[in-house]
Specification:
Elements lengths: L11 H15 L5 H29 L1 H9 L1 H7 L10 E5 L4 E6 L8 H4 L4 H4 L1 H9 L1 H7 L9 E6 L5 E5 L11 H7 L2 H5 L5
Parallel strand pairs: 1-4, 2-3
Helix pairs in contact: 2-3, 2-9, 3-4, 7-8
The structure holds fe (iii) ion (FE).
């Protein structure tokens, strides 16, 4: 997206990882395409699919939704998702009047058990700064234009507390079952940069 320029300086770790990858590729030990596929899987498939199941269950089961909004860590664990970078979770619900967005202004804290690995833009300095200073501008770049009377709340994730957005259930989905609903839920809607 446009906010990711200029590119943030690479961290020491990123440089070392890149160096290691180059050596492994050069020696024919790994195929860079395989690594791309692996990263893609964790970014888009494995991780966010867990969060999508949490969201779909909250849409169809009011008692579960209540538990999710009062004790997210326990409610998410009910579905089998817990562990590192997800020990303390808070779920924030989008409504007709409130829209929630997640950021980590300090670094890249993110709820791994429910969303997998953070996307590159989430870790970028421009997103981290602008999500707080100009959330509507950031949302617009993701194609998300909210009515003026919708309050935008930005949640700053920390190592101690991680957030997951509960998006609004799309209209016209009354007949869909939980699995079909889960298939509609995107990673970006659970970060709060898009709506469904
Ligand atoms: Fe962080």
């Amino acid at each position: 997206m446009a906010t990711t320029k200029p590119a943030p300086a690479e961290s020491e770790t990123a440089i070392r990882v890149r160096a290691l990858e180059s050596i492994l590729v050069e020696k024919g030990l790994i195929d860079p395409k395989a690594i791309d596929a692996l990263v893609d899987t964790f970014e888009h498939k494995v991780g966010p699919r867990n969060g999508a199941k949490v969201v779909a269950k909250a849409w169809v089961d009011p008692a579960y939704k209540q538990r999710l909004l009062t004790d997210a860590t326990a409610a998410i664990k009910e579905l089998g998702y817990s562990g590192m970078q997800g020990e303390d979770m808070l779920v924030v619900e989008n409504t007709d009047t409130v829209h929630n967005v997640i950021v980590c202004t300090l670094c890249s804290c993110y709820p791994w058990p429910t969303l997998g690995l953070p996307p590159v833009w989430y870790k970028s300095a421009p997103y981290r700064a602008r999500a707080v200073n100009d959330p509507r501008g950031v949302l617009k770049e993701f194609g998300t234009i909210l009515p003026d009377d919708v309050e935008v709340r930005v949640w700053d994730t920390t190592a101690e507390l991680r957030y997951l957005v509960l998006p609004q259930r799309p209209a016209g989905t009354e007949k869909l079952d939980e699995d079909a609903l889960a298939a509609l839920v995107t990673r970006d809607s659970m970060i709060g940069v898009t709506v469904l």
